[in-house]
Amino acid sequence: xxxxxxxxxxxxxxxxxxxxxxxxxxxxxxxxxxxxxxxxxxxxxxxxxxxxxxxxxxxxxxxxxxxxxxxxxxxxxxxxxxxxxxxxxxxxxxxxxxxxxxxxxxxxxxxxxxxxxxxxxxxxxxxxxxxxxxxxxxxxxxxxxxxxxxxxxxxxxxxxxxxxxxxxxxxxxxxxxxxxxxxxxxxxxxxxxxxxxxxxxxxxxxxxxxxxxxxxxxxxxxxxxxxxxxxxxxxxxxxxxxxxxxxxxxxxxxxxxxxxxxxxxxxxxxxxxxxxxxxxxxxxxxxxxxxxxxxxxxxxxx
Amino acid sequence: xxxxxxxxxxxxxxxxxxxxxxxxxxxxxxxxxxxxxxxxxxxxxxxxxxxxxxxxxxxxxxxxxxxxxxxxxxxxxxxxxxxxxxxxxxxxxxxxxxxxxxxxxxxxxxxxxxxxxxxxxxxxxxxxxxxxxxxxxxxxxxxxxxxxxxxxxxxxxxxxxxxxxxxxxxxxxxxxxxxxxxxxxxxxxxxxxxxxxxxxxxxxxxxxxxxxxxxxxxxxxxxxxxxxxxxxxxxxxxxxxxxxxxxxxxxxxxxxxxxxxxxxxxxxxxxxxxxxxxxxxxxxxxxxxxxxxxxxxxxxxxxxxxxxxxxxxxxxxxxxxxxxxxxxxxxxxxxxxxxxxxxxxxxxxxxxxxxxxxxxxxxxxxxxxxxxxxxxxxxxxxxxxxxxx
Lengths: 302, 389
Known about the structure:
The structure holds 2 protein chains of 2 kinds. By secondary structure, chain A is α+β, with helices and mostly antiparallel strands. Chain A has 11 helices and 7 strands. Chain A has a 5-stranded mixed beta sheet. Chain A has a two-stranded antiparallel ribbon with strand order 6-7. In chain A, helix 6 (151-182) packs antiparallel against helix 9 (264-271) and helix 8 (228-254) runs antiparallel to helix 11 (282-293). In chain B, the strands form 2 sheets. A 4-stranded mixed beta sheet of chain B has the order 1-4-5-8, covered by helices on one side. Chain B is globular, with a radius of gyration of 22 Å. Chain B has 3 domains: 3-117, Acyl-CoA dehydrogenase/oxidase, N-terminal domain (Butyryl-Coa Dehydrogenase, subunit A, domain 1), CATH 1.10.540.10; 121-250, Butyryl-CoA Dehydrogenase, subunit A, domain 2 (Beta Barrel), CATH 2.40.110.10; 254-388, Butyryl-CoA Dehydrogenase, subunit A, domain 3 (Up-down Bundle). Chain B starts with a helix and ends with a helix. At the A-B interface, helix 6, helix 7, helix 8 and helix 11 of A face helix 7, helix 8, helix 9 and helix 11 of B.
């Protein structure tokens, strides 16, 4: 079992983060919100410079780790583009990207014209055509069935977007730490209050635990572990729980300013929603994983 | 982890199955057979080189990898710690003696720990010094060529059965000249503390058990009434005991593998319930799944620390985060298991599992307090977060 990311992958993630920042950072999502149809033109040149869309995470562990690090950096800047979903593309179909869907297929693909594939939790694959872009780029998908061979695609398609969400949690906590370190009340910075400190730890414990599950799931996928889909669902479950805690804490610590569009947290929080609700919310993820593992439980780590 | 670790796991499970009764719930019950079981099991582990496997060979160990030691930690805790109190000797008393002990102290104590023959207790907490340990009041005053110790410790696990105590006492008060450097005075309460290695058989030591929900022999008060010790009993340097306390805590960074027992009991529940599992409400089976995921999360967080320790990059942030996560898991999983216990009946297997679950619930209530309260871990973690930026 490997729970470390390679130095190369970590460095690639840093490079990507610097590139996203240089290209506009937090302003990218704001620009894209105003014109969803232009977001591909806004973001894909940055990804092309990074060679990001040439990554083949299904090919080997190195590329998988690099893809994960990239998605994390994309999440950190709430990048208004489905990087993880693009990288999850199937290798046996003509497709630019893959999303997991349920019986009410939706995904944050509004305004994008690429060739999308959808896979449901039973492995049925379809061609997916997004409709009009709604809140946080979420669009209804029109599905045209292809086959039932998508089980092998599922673990990666569930896991990689959770690396994007992890990056969002990294950023939310960074923002909260920065805010409580300068904001003063009753003559001292908020960070001096133990209740504030303890709320930060609530978020950090969730975030750091999620990071370990995310690393483990990469290993599970890279080694074709039989339980890879269950591992990915366990990751999703933990990620959704962590997001709930981290965003609740970071909003609370930001006070009213956290809801204002002048504050990055406000953007991050609302653009985390598609990742947290689609294709399955927390309860539905619980239910699916519980059904899948039956009485055997999760497969032991090693 | 690798194939060696997996083989070791199976070896340990076989040993437990063969040598530990099915109804064993730890060494600290009113039944003397339980303590005898633990003592015999420790000797068996020692004979097979499994008790102190990660110790260097010159001290009676096997020089095994920290991953193999992690497997031992997990399997022992999962099965109600059949090493009894020995885990303390193995995990931190021995390693601390290797680092700070004199050759005489090492020769006297390390072989005894490695052979599973001796139990140690930790004399740290006092009625007025829990989380704020450096405020302790037990004092050691100069008495000729030695010291005379008076004071009280509390919450001392294993004191009724220990042969030795790892005792922290104040040798110099704040504002007084330090013995180690008479030109300087102690300016902080962390200065002027000294570790003494003391036999519990000394008549100047009195132990009073504290009956508690954790079990009858877990908690004790220990009183020192003019206890005479010598220079030879000092561990490390007089007045510099606080640095040794820091080492003790670092050896205990991963601490108890609490997730291992949670995971084992959670997995056992559907096996024992059999067809009755279908009667368990969906909401509860969902919580069961959630706890299994949290077990995995805590296990991975522990492995992260082991990996960092192996490469010499230990982060207090990681260890504090892990301790918070694993103690919460202990309590949350105990609640889920107690609810599942309602579906158990009267068969032998049902009764055994119910007893395990009840023991786990009682013990888990202390997990956020014992070995340093969880609030201290939160303070450590938040300080690290705030100063890293």
